[in-house]
């Protein structure tokens, strides 16, 4: 188990990447430090984006409808409660407004006045049963958003989630047959788009056309059901990329983030966190060499708070002895 390598030092966790996994790709083993940079504990922390202008981390707490602005230095999160499920928050380039998804609505939230404008609504005929989950902007500022279809009891209808593109104020469906459409990211040449599906334990890759904003040729990059590198506990959640173009996925229930070689689908590094319910990684900090990982303590399962006291809080991973653990800024959605 990965937790065995975790040493707790006054709230700071020193972890070693798993040697078996690292040995496969590189002779140099990177050591990481994990600490907790938030005092607020979300029920289901998600949708984080680093705001390079304000040097804060925005994230949501899906189940309590909160949008939070986290100062990772003071560890104070300033949270605002909305009227429905908030799954992701993206700062707009103007530094004033945020793009937030509220169940099946995309809204603009003014952080000063807390005024909410509804910009668009997906599948209004389903009255919110199809709801947004994760989303990200491509290099041109088009927003790509994944949805989940809930049944009457709030469970998930497998294979009925969609992937939408939002451009010029309009949604269009670009791919279907996801269960929980989650983390997404692109290759730096913009020829590939990666989308994970936590419920089906897979990361998919599509051919991507940045000019037209279209996807084709969906295939499986990594499959938790028959991979030797990840297990079915490693439900791939949020996804980001590092500067070398490798992918980092959070293992929702696996308590770790893992690095994937995008050309082979091999897991080449893995970092354990003290909370098993890791949701989404994002690079940030003044030099983009800090990885922030949102976590959950409830998430529809047993309450993890007593056993795992840092669950729900945002964790930070930094490399102790390498300058190669670096990401880049996320693209911003066009207002
Ligand atoms: C974050 O907190 C630190 C330390 O308390 C403070 O110096 C800094 O100004 C804060 N940053 C923002 C953006 O509020
Ligand atoms: C990726 O995996 C996570 C956790 O397993 C999940 O919550 C998320 O919805 C997935 N992303 C996609 C695009 O399916
Ligand atoms: C991996 O598992 C899936 C079932 O989830 C199966 O359909 C697929 O054929 C398997 N692929 C390989 C290479 O075994």
Describe the structure.
This protein has 335 residues and is mainly β. The protein is built from 1 helix and 26 strands. It has one helix spanning 19-23; strands at residues 7-9, 12-16, 31-36, 45-51, 56-61, 66-71, 76-81, 86-91, 97-102, 105-110, 116-121, 130-137, 143-149, 161-167, 170-178, 181-186, 192-197, 202-209, 214-223, 235-241, 247-252, 256-260, 267-272, 278-284, 290-295, 315-319. The strands form 6 sheets. Strands 1-2-3-26-25-24 form a 6-stranded antiparallel β-sheet, with no helix packed on it. A 4-stranded antiparallel β-sheet has the order 4-5-6-7, with no helix packed on it. The N and C termini lie far apart (45 Å). One 2-acetamido-2-deoxy-beta-D-glucopyranose is lined by residues 54-56, 71, 73-74. The site of one 2-acetamido-2-deoxy-beta-D-glucopyranose (NAG) has 17 residues, from β12, β16, β17 and β20.
Short note summarizing the structure:
This protein is mainly beta and 335 residues long. The chain contains one helix and 26 strands.
């Amino acid at each position: 188990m990965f937790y065995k390598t975790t040493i707790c030092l006054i709230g700071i966790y020193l972890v070693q990447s798993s040697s078996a996994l690292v040995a496969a790709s590189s002779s140099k083993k990177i050591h990481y430090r994990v600490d907790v940079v938030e005092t607020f504990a979300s029920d289901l922390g998600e949708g984080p984006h680093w705001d390079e202008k304000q040097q804060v981390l925005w994230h949501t707490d899906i189940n309590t409808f909160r949008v939070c602005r986290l100062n990772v230095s003071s560890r104070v999160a300033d949270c605002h409660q909305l009227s429905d499920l908030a799954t992701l928050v993206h700062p707009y380039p103007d530094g004033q407004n945020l793009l937030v998804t509220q169940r099946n609505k995309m809204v603009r939230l003014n952080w000063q006045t807390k005024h909410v404008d509804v910009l668009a609504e997906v599948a209004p005929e389903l009255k919110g049963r199809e709801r947004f989950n994760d989303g990200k902007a491509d290099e041109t500022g088009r927003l790509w958003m994944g949805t989940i279809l809930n049944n009457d009891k709030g469970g998930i209808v497998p294979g009925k989630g969609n992937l939408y593109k939002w451009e010029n104020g309009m949604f269009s469906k670009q791919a279907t047959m996801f269960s929980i459409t989650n983390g997404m990211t692109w290759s730096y040449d913009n020829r590939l788009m990666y989308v994970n599906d936590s419920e089906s334990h897979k990361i998919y890759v599509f051919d991507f056309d940045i000019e037209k904003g279209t996807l084709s040729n969906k295939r499986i990059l990594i499959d938790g059901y028959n991979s030797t590198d990840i297990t079915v506990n490693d439900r791939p959640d949020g996804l980001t990329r590092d500067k070398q173009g490798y992918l980092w996925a959070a293992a929702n229930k696996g308590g770790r983030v893992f690095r994937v070689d995008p050309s082979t689908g091999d897991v080449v590094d893995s970092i354990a966190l003290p909370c098993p319910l890791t949701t989404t990684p994002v690079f940030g900090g003044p030099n983009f060499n800090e990885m922030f990982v949102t976590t959950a303590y409830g998430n529809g399962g047993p309450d993890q708070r007593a056993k795992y006291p840092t669950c729900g809080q945002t964790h930070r991973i930094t490399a102790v002895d390498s300058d190669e653990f670096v990401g880049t800024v996320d693209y911003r959605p066009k207002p």
